[in-house]
Design goal:
The protein contains 1 helix and 7 strands. The protein has 66 residues and is mainly beta. It has one domain: Beta-grasp domain (Ubiquitin-like (UB roll)), CATH 3.10.20.
Length: 66
């Protein structure tokens, strides 16, 4: 599968099928720090990603109120 990372933008290829949680563990990314998107759809940690898929990891950004 192709994984597109943001900040900085880069692309990685990962072999095999896996859950989102397994992909993040392989990349040593804390699940709560990113949104995982496939074809415009937000994925959950338990969703499976196939070898032919492209997923995008976007950092979670939060702001406070003033």
């Amino acid at each position: 599968m192709k994984v597109i990372l943001r900040n900085p933008r880069r692309e990685l290829d990962i072999e095999g099928n896996a859950t989102v949680k397994e992909v993040l563990r392989r990349l040593e990314i804390i699940p709560e720090t990113v949104l995982v998107i496939r074809e415009g759809e937000l994925l959950l940690k338990t969703d499976r990603v196939g070898e032919a898929d492209t997923i995008e990891l976007r950092p979670v950004i939060s702001g406070g109120c003033r």
